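tool=predict chain=A
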Amino acid sequence: MEGRPQDYAKIGVVHFMLYKEALKGGADVIPSLSKLTADRDLSVIEMTWINDKTMRAEAAALFHEWRGTVTFGAQPVLLTQGLDLNHEDQWKRREAVDGVKRVIEQAYELGAIGFAVLSGKDPGEARRAAARDSLVESLSEVAAELRAQGNMRLVLETFDRKPFGKNCLIGPNTEAVEIAKRMREKYPDFGLMIDLSHLPLQDETPDHAVKTVRNFLVHAHIGNCIMRDPKHPMYGDAHPPFGDPAGENGVPELARFLSALLEHGYLDKTKRPILSFEVCPYGDWTPESLWAQSKETLEAAWAKV
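tool=predict ok
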């Protein structure tokens, strides 16, 4: 493929996965953000909650000087607290909605342009229709609060239904599209996020997934997963490095995903949408070595497109 990936997308990284200590909102994120904002290949940093207000202000100032794009992931807010946006118990569903709404102000303080969430647990086939209704109700409440405070877009990330993964309601990308259609009746900027890391766990090919969500796709992640070795320390949806011997995704799989994103109109020189790495170090990997390897993998995959 001619040019570079950066010509067709804003290349980003999920900060709270590369620096996993940030997941619960209590880590000192400034040193790692200082490193990332100095990287000229990077245009997007995906953040999550930062509990300390002074640190948030410092991060916001750093982002303002950087002039890149910031997005906000509320997935850790939900996952680390066991919150569920489609829980059948309305009190627990309310707890999840309130938990997400509490961090919207943080997202605006950081200058984020998008706000991502995930669905709750899959309740089983018999109760999925009711769970989808509950999810739409919750998403609508979050979208309304986002609109009340500014103009940030709400994004739903699709996950797996595997017992060794996240086992989420959404879930298959065909069902994600139905949620998106319902949401766009009132919130036309609502969008979906898909992740190469999740596609093997979803039993979907890159072409099928991208083609399915293309009219609603506003955000894409790239990474890897472990499905075949239950003893692996990164088994399930844990985002190991590309090319892990036990993993599902390396250069060929990433090349196929990039080809699908190009073919179906997501990657585009004019729009330059977000394409972010979601990778997590383990063992001897450091964030710095993993980030370097991830960029090398993207370049190698791009050469095969």
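The domain at 5-302 is CATH 3.20.20.150 (TIM Barrel). Strands lie at 10-14, 44-47, 69-73, 114-118, 153-157, 191-195, 217-222, 274-277.
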